[in-house]
Structure formats: structure tokens, C-alpha cells
Design brief:
Pfam family, one: Aminotran_1_2
Oligomer: single chain
Organism: Moellerella wisconsensis ATCC 35017
Radius of gyration: 21 Å
Number of domains: 2
CATH superfamily of the largest domain: Type I PLP-dependent aspartate aminotransferase-like (Major domain)
Enzyme class: transferase
Protein name: Valine--pyruvate aminotransferase
CATH topology of the largest domain: Aspartate Aminotransferase, domain 2
Cofactor: pyridoxal 5'-phosphate
Bound molecules: pyridoxal-5'-phosphate
Strand content: 15-25%
């Protein structure tokens, strides 16, 4: 069958579809040790909360009301209103419901936004998305209608005590050329767990304003919800910022609810795209979020339950890793947020892609690092020395995976000597 150019680009295997396939099979194959995809943890307190909230919404008719009606293309009005009021009251942002649109997962919002702000323009310029700090989220990599939509900047690497390191935006090498249409950064970052500092955010904001382009901040893991952040970081928004949020890492990935907070022109554009592509975003996630906002639970559960759960889990998992993998074999990016650990095998004689294959053969799924460098030339050795693991599964499962990882690392070194 002959596909269109669009078909050839979007129907082929991409990094993200391979990952989601692994995730689906890994989650459902008995015995598989799934440290791959980005599924959030099942936090018992949150699962119970959702169950009782859904039961209540089923009894009082709110669930059928949302299931049996379309919302408008901008998303559920009552939720937009309630969220705008809460953000205004709690964070002091000057926003109204006109500054928020919903999407079917934030993943689809990135597709809209990248292709709205980058690609071929009427002035003849082909504009690009700039990632100021690679590694960056694999889900961005194939989201451009045009090839070569992304450029990225290599990070500065700061070595820290205890076998840890941290990436920083390298402002000495970062160039915002005239063909950049938007600067995009995830904060906290998937895959590394990095949280770019307030100072870095302000610097990027200034650069974006100087070049008359928006700064897109992907806040899928951040504050005020779901609150998976373990370091000092101030929530940031202004009229030049597009802040993308999601209900997924709150524990509701199946609702496919993304939230875009931006100036009215961007929100109107997103809303119109929603109309064409999906008529309206799904209503179940927003209906749940609305009830959580009404009960003042959205931010408080994030702060008091979700954040502390992941903080404790990541500390436990680092202890497990260190029991089997010493610092000279494996460096770990300082875990400041998100649900991943980013492992750097500096001197490993095999590539992370080969390590991925060997681990997969033994039933352990992790993600090889090279997927996370969209916009960076593939011959940068560092891109092939890292692996991402999801630390959300139960520690007993993680330990089994780490034992196998340590064996494979040992074997690779032995074979090379
Ligand atoms: C950084 C980041 N942004 C966006 C997404 C997309 O999430 P969703 O489409 O479920 O909102 C993910 C999912 O893992 C992510 O890690």
C-alpha cells in the first residue's frame, strides 16, 4: 500500500510507539520486570481516593452526565473556570478560564503546539523547536509534521558526591537563532529527573522574550500538581509561557487529560485544533479534577501524598541500586523529580541499545538513552551510555531487575577484557 508523505512519517515505527508497545506488553506479561515506560505508581491512598470519588460521582449522576455529553472544544467549562480561580488564588497568576484549554493527554498538546509554532511559515522561513537541554522527553521526537523540526543543546555536566551528577543548561553554547519558533523544556525532566533551577527558567524566559517566541514548559510531573518534585522550584507562568500539565502522573493516565495554560491567542488556536481533530477533549478526567478542586484535594493530595510517596520510593531504589552497582560502574542523575532514574554507564564497553536488547531478553525492560536526544547528532558518545528506568514499581520487582542489570554490566566488562 502506498501512503501519503504524512502516512510515511506517522505510520512508521517511532521511538515512542516502540516504547508504548513495550509498556503495554511489559505491564501485561506475567513475570516481566517493567522498568520501561512512564506508567505512574499505584499509590494505594490515591487508588482508594479515586475509587470512592468515582462511586460518589456515579451515585450523584455526575459521571453519567459527563459520559453522555460532549464538552466544547476548549474542554469542560466548569473545570477551566475552577482551575483558573485556584491557580490565580494560590499562585497569583493573572489568568482566567480563557487562558486554559484541555487536550486528550498532554502528548497530543505537544503535537498541536510544535506544529503551530514551528515548521514552514508563510514568510518562507522553516522554524524549529529548540530544546535548551538534552536529554529531553522521547515523546517529542516524532511529533513534527516536518522532518528535522528539533534542535537541542548539549548540557553542562556537574559531577556531584555519592556517584551522582546533574545537567545544567549550557548558556555559553545555547544559540537562539532566527529560525527558532519556540523554546521547550520539561521541568521536572523526563528522562533524567532533573529540575532546571529558577535561575535557568528566568534566563530562558528572558531569551524567549528577547526573540519574540514563547517558552513552553512541560510540567507533567511538577507543581502544584502532581507534585513529583523533591527540590526547591517555583511554579512559573506569564503571558509568554505555555505551561503544559497533565492528570496522568496524578495516577490517572487512562483519562488522557492534558492541560494547556497560555495566552488567549494560543488557547484559541488549541481549542480550534481540538475541534478539528477530536471535536472535544474527553470529559471524565476534567470532571474528576473539578471535584478534586472543589474539595481542595488536587493540590493537597499532590503535596501530602503523591510527592512524599515518590520521594521515599526513589531513595529506596537508589539504595537498592547501590547494593549491586558501585559508583565507578554507574553514575545516577540527581533525582529532583519525575518518576525516572537516569543511569550513566560511563565506561561500559557496549552501547545502551545493546544493553537494552540483552536486558529485554532476560525479561527486564528499561529504555536506552539514545532515544532521548532529539535534535542532537547521534554520534555523541554520551547519548549511548545512559539508560532510563522507571522507579515507580514495587521495590521487590525493581531489585530483581537491578540484579539482572548488574549481572549484564559485569558480563559486558568481562567480555571486553
Ligand atoms: C515529560 C512528559 N511530558 C508529557 C507526557 C505525556 O503525558 P500524557 O499525554 O499522559 O499527559 C509525558 C508522559 O510520560 C512526559 O513524561
Amino acid at each position: 500500500m502506498i501512503f501519503s508523505k504524512f502516512g510515511n512519517k506517522f505510520a512508521k515505527h517511532s521511538g515512542i510507539s516502540l516504547l508504548m508497545k513495550d509498556l503495554n506488553e511489559g505491564l501485561r506479561t506475567p513475570g516481566a520486570i517493567m522498568l520501561g515506560g512512564g506508567n505512574p505508581a499505584h499509590i494505594p491512598e490515591m487508588d482508594n481516593y479515586f475509587q470512592s470519588l468515582l462511586t460518589e460521582m456515579n451515585q450523584n449522576g455526575l459521571l453519567t452526565d459527563t459520559l453522555c455529553n460532549y464538552d466544547g472544544p476548549q474542554g469542560k467549562d466548569t473545570m477551566l473556570q475552577a482551575l483558573a480561580e485556584t491557580l490565580k488564588a494560590q499562585l497569583g497568576w493573572d489568568i482566567s478560564a480563557k487562558n486554559i484549554a484541555l487536550s486528550n493527554g498532554s502528548q497530543s498538546a505537544f503535537f498541536y503546539l510544535f506544529n503551530l509554532l514551528a515548521g514552514h511559515f508563510d514568510d518562507g522561513i522553516k522554524r524549529k523547536v529548540l530544546f535548551p537541554l538534552a536529554p529531553e522527553y522521547v515523546g517529542y521526537a516524532d511529533a513534527g509534521l516536518d522532518d528535522d523540526l528539533f534542535v537541542a543543546n548539549k548540557p553542562q555536566i556537574e559531577l556531584l558526591p555519592d556517584g551522582q551528577f546533574k545537567y545544567h543548561v549550557d548558556f555559553n553554547t545555547l544559540q537562539v537563532t532566527d529560525d527558532i519558533g519556540v523554546i521547550c523544556v520539561s521541568r521536572p525532566t523526563n528522562p533524567t529527573g532533573n529540575v532546571i533551577t529558577d535561575e535557568e527558567v528566568h534566563h530562558l524566559d528572558k531569551l524567549a522574550k528577547q526573540h519574540n517566541i514563547p517558552l513552553l514548559i512541560d510540567n507533567a510531573y511538577g507543581i502544584p500538581f502532581p507534585g513529583i518534585i523533591f527540590t526547591e522550584a517555583t511554579p512559573f507562568w506569564n503571558e509568554n509561557v505555555i505551561l503544559c500539565m497533565s492528570l496522568s502522573k496524578l495516577g490517572l493516565p487512562g483519562t488522557r487529560c492534558g492541560i494547556i495554560i497560555a495566552n488567549e491567542e494560543i488557547i484559541e488556536a488549541v481549542s480550534n485544533m481540538n475541534g478539528i481533530i477530536s471535536l472535544a477533549p474527553g470529559g471524565v478526567g476534567p470532571a474528576l479534577a473539578l471535584e478534586m478542586l472543589r474539595r481542595n484535594d488536587l493540590m493537597s493530595l499532590s503535596k501530602d501524598v503523591i510527592g512524599p510517596f515518590y520521594k521515599q520510593r526513589v531513595e529506596q531504589v537508589i539504595d537498592i541500586i547501590r547494593r549491586y552497582l558501585p559508583e565507578d560502574k554507574c553514575l545516577i542523575h540527581k533525582p529532583e523529580g519525575a518518576i525516572f532514574l537516569w543511569l550513566w554507564f560511563k565506561d561500559l564497553p557496549i552501547s545502551s541499545a545493546e544493553l537494552y536488547r540483552r536486558l529485554k531478553q532476560r525479561g527486564v525492560l528499561m529504555v536506552p538513552g539514545h532515544f532521548f536526544f532529539p535534535g542532537i547528532e547521534q554520534d555523541w558518545p554520551h547519548a549511548h551510555q545512559c539508560m532510563r528506568m522507571n522507579y515507580a514499581p514495587e521495590p521487590e520487582i525493581i531489585e530483581k531487575g537491578i540484579v539482572i542489570l548488574a549481572e549484564e554490566i559485569e558480563l559486558a566488562f568481562k567480555k571486553a577484557n
